[in-house]
């Protein structure tokens, strides 16, 4: 009986130890599962970090490309502005030249009209001096002049016959 009691105590101790070991096993398995989960999360996080790093690199590259395009467009705009300013300066210069030429043309037209009037006056003076016979050949023999009219007044054309 003593041996049976001892065996029963020993068995109870073994059962108690067994339960303790089973509890430790379960706790260890739970810890292992938790660690595996954390590692899995870390791997998922590492994958997400790698994906985000790739996206950031792509966005930086796109931004760099867009900056280059923007700088290029700004250079083109500056060049176009310079060309416009140069063209305006050339146009203003040509406008002033045209204005000067218009003034000269007006002056020459006035001078031309004055000369034409003088010639007509001289011809009439000679006709009145020369009598009746010279009147027949008056303007055609001495001086031929013609005033041309049109959108742009032309200079007086004089032909002197000798």
TrEMBL record:
Residues 4-118 form a coiled coil. One of its GO terms (biological process) is intracellular signal transduction. Keywords: Coiled coil. Residues 126-151 are annotated as: Disordered. It comes from the Eukaryota. One of its GO terms (cellular component) is I band. InterPro entries: Tuftelin_GRINL1A/MYZAP/CCD68. This is TUFT1 protein.
């Amino acid at each position: 009986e003593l041996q049976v009691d001892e065996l029963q105590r020993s068995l109870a101790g073994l059962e108690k130890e067994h339960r303790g070991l089973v509890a430790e096993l379960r706790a260890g398995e739970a810890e292992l599962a938790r660690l595996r989960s954390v590692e899995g999360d870390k791997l998922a996080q590492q994958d997400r970090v790698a994906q985000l790093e790739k996206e950031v690199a792509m966005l930086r590259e796109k931004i760099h490309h867009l900056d280059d395009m923007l700088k290029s467009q700004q250079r083109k705009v500056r060049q176009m502005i310079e060309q416009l300013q140069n063209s305006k300066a050339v146009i203003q210069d040509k406008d002033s030249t045209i204005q000067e030429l218009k003034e000269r043309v007006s002056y020459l037209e006035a001078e031309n009209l004055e000369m034409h009037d003088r010639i007509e006056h001289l011809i009439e003076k000679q006709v009145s001096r020369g009598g009746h016979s010279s009147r027949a050949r008056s303007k055609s023999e001495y001086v031929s002049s013609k005033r041309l009219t049109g959108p742009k007044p032309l200079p007086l054309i004089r032909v002197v016959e000798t």
